[in-house]
Write a structure and sequence with these properties.
heterodimer; A: 415 residues; alpha+beta; 11 helices; 19 strands; B: six-stranded mixed beta sheet
């Protein structure tokens, strides 16, 4: 009989989602269930941009949850997403970050797969001189790489372990889809580069940070000090009907529209705080959207960053309850002139592992995980904005989008 | 070792002095960052200096994105200013070690090209370990301004593609 003293109850502390127990972020069993039910479950996981695998034979390593996959463009132009794990002895056969290949050969025993993952070669399958080899009934067709379902939308590639997934547009819902398509507006993407870093925190904290507009003006002194986000900015914290996706949106204020009093207060706040090269924070209008900044959290592993003109994908790769890897893919558009390309690169100083905003988020997430690990049995409070129990909020001072995410999470996890 | 050819000796001595001067520059650069004297760090660049911290992955593929990307001294100064006055991160000690200096040659405008390996070790106050935070190569262009060397370009190309959480201070 199980000892009740050591049986973990996994009981939600209350029904209104305003209290989140620490075990959501720290427990190994919960993490394993998330991989099974969320990342390997009925979700569309970001894996690549089409621009990264433009030509047949191009491939890139990626992940679905923690699981390594290879995303390849086959000869017929279709995209295949396969597990990066040989069907023979499980070797993670593809070691380059990206490249071009005719086929994939596992280096261990040279089992060979085509670009769609079909097994096309087993050395010494019939043995040597009538001895050894695979059994006569071995069917290569039954031993192809494990293949995931694939969809693309506006040049972005997603994969799913689940069969019968709804189309990607339905998965996002109309409101989040509109913001997604405002960023991926049909112009061809050009790759500007990657960042990769490991964050010592639970992967969900990254979603929550971008569903928490409350922190933006408090943690990010840079935003307020240098006028990117000030009192009176228009903003919205959008969630889809399911609660799993979100978009944090804000519009840069026109300083001329501010009242004299507000200006005076801001000037005093900024006294002595002036950048020499403030132009890097200019917003050059290029999108059909009322917002100058949108941060879209696409469940479960994608963030689409449209921070004015610095654009990027952030892909979450969880590695356990206490750590995840973030892979950033920064991009511009074909047709960007040299001035625009440079502007995007300069503005990139805001984000990424060394960004004026990005580094603070990373530190804050680490602090949260540290706090939980040292105090067992704790809880988080997410009570802001009680008038919106869970869902879209029109005030920055709200945690309704975090509650909406946990409403969905509890359904998906059956907890 | 000196030879009987005075001109050759002069060239060799000049090369040694330049090598030594750049080593001293790099030592002073490391000290400024180790002591987090970021204003002093910013002053080690020319007005038109280019400074970038870029992964080897991006550099090898000619992709321009950098963790830090500064097109002139104004942006380098702003980085120093913002880190001092607006940025929140846990306190830490850093140790920059620079070595394997190679002076590569002179550009037509007189700028001196050089490269050196660097290592940055980071200590957080609540962890016992000094962690390897960055390892890479400085690709540099030095320029003599008022008889002192300054950096007209420093491209910090790092090998550790997977950065440990956040890069809070310059490299």
């Amino acid at each position: 009989m199980a000892d009740p003293a050591i049986a973990q109850p996994y009981e939600w502390p209350s029904d209104d989602l305003t209290v989140i127990p620490d075990w959501v972020y720290t427990d190994e069993t919960i993490y394993a269930r998330e991989v099974e039910r969320i990342f390997h479950g009925p979700t569309w996981n970001y894996v690549a941009l089409e621009a990264e695998i433009a030509t047949p034979g191009d491939y890139i390593r990626s992940n679905v949850g923690p699981t390594p996959v290879v995303v390849a463009r086959a000869e017929d132009g279709s995209i295949a997403v396969v597990e990066n794990r040989c069907m023979h002895r499980a070797a993670e056969f593809c070691r380059e970050l990206s490249g071009t290949a005719k086929e994939f050969i596992c280096p261990y025993h040279q089992w060979t797969y085509d670009l769609k993952g079909n097994l096309i070669g087993v050395p010494f399958r019939r043995g040597v001189a009538g001895k050894g080899g695979m059994p006569a009934d071995f069917e290569p067709a039954e031993h192809g790489l494990r293949r995931l379902n694939v969809t693309t939308h506006c040049g972005v590639v997603f994969a799913s372990y689940a069969d019968g997934m709804e189309p990607f547009a339905d998965y996002l819902g109309p409101e989040v889809l509109r913001e997604f398509e405002a960023t991926f507006d049909g112009r061809k993407l050009t790759l500007l580069g990657h960042y990769r870093h490991s964050l010592p925190g639970n992967w969900k904290l990254y979603h929550e940070n971008l569903k928490d507009p409350y922190h933006a003006t408090l943690l990010h002194t840079f935003l307020v000090t240098f006028g990117l986000l000030v009192a009176g900015n228009r903003s919205l914290m959008l969630t889809d009907a399911s609660g799993r996706h979100g978009v944090m949106a804000s519009a840069k204020s026109d300083a001329r529209a501010l009242t004299g009093d507000a200006k005076k207060e801001m000037r005093s706040f900024k006294e002595g705080m002036k950048l020499r090269e403030a132009r890097f924070m200019d917003f050059i209008e290029e999108f059909d959207s009322p917002w100058s900044v949108t941060m879209a959290t696409i469940w479960p592993n994608l963030i689409v960053q449209r921070e004015m003109n610095t654009l990027g994908i952030r892909q979450i790769v969880p590695t356990g309850p206490h750590e995840f890897i973030m892979k950033w893919t920064m991009f511009g558009f074909e047709g960007d002139d040299e001035a625009m390309r440079r502007h995007r690169l300069r503005q990139g100083n805001l984000m990424g592992p060394a960004g004026f905003l990005g580094l603070e988020d990373n530190e804050a997430i680490k602090f949260v995980q540290d706090g939980m690990r040292s105090v067992p049995g704790g809880e988080h409070l997410v009570k802001l904005d009680p008038k919106t129990p869970a869902g879209t909020a029109d005030t920055l001072i709200s945690e309704a989008a975090i509650r909406a995410m946990y409403r969905h999470w509890r359904e998906a996890m059956e907890l | 070792m000196l030879t009987r050819d005075p001109a050759a000796n002069d060239r060799r001595i000049e090369a040694l002095l330049l090598h030594r001067e750049i080593e001293e520059f790099n030592t002073a650069y490391a000290a400024a960052l180790d002591e987090q004297r970021l204003d002093d760090w910013a002053e080690m660049f020319t007005e038109d200096a280019f400074y970038v911290v870029i992964s080897r992955e991006n550099a090898d593929r000619n992709l321009p994105v950098g963790l830090i990307y500064c097109e002139n001294k104004g942006m380098i100064h702003d980085r120093a200013f913002a880190l001092k006055n607006t940025e929140m991160f846990a306190p830490r000690y850093l140790r920059h070690i620079v070595g394997n200096l190679q002076v590569l040659g002179e550009e037509p405008n007189g700028d001196i090209r050089a490269r050196a390996n660097y290592v940055v070790v980071q200590v957080l106050f609540d962890r016992p370990d000094a962690k390897l935070h960055q390892i890479g190569v400085y690709y540099d262009r030095f320029r003599r301004v008022d008889d002192r060397l300054k950096l007209a370009e420093r491209r910090c190309v790092y090998d550790n593609l997977l950065v440990d959480n956040a890069l809070c201070l310059p490299v």
